[in-house]
Amino acid sequence: MSRPCEKHRSAFSRVFVDQRILNGKTVQSLQTQVFGNQSRAPIMVAR
């Protein structure tokens, strides 16, 4: 039994994932700026 809300949820989750990827890139660049030449930066970016 397929419900219409299932379709809506998959579309929503796709948008949510895209948003998370964008946020991840933003956070990564911010960390690179803030922690720039600290030795901790590569570890945080690798995560």
Straight-line distance between termini: 39 Å
Percent in helix: over 70%
Structural class: mainly alpha
Largest beta-sheet details: none
**What oligomeric arrangement do these chains adopt?**
single chain
Strand content: under 5%
Q: How confident overall, as mean pLDDT? A: 71
Number of strands: 0
Order of helices and strands: HH
Overall 3D shape: rod-shaped
**Number of DSSP helices?**
2
- List unreliable stretches of 5+ residues: none
Report Rg: 17 Å
Mind explaining what this structure looks like?
- The structure is a single chain.
- The chain is an all-alpha fold.
- The protein is rod-shaped.
- The model has no long low-confidence stretch (mean pLDDT 71).
Descriptive labels:
47 residues; mainly alpha; rod-shaped
Short description:
This protein has two helices and no strands. The longest helix is centred in the middle third of the chain and has 32 residues.
Topology of this structure?
Layout: H1 4-35, H2 41-46
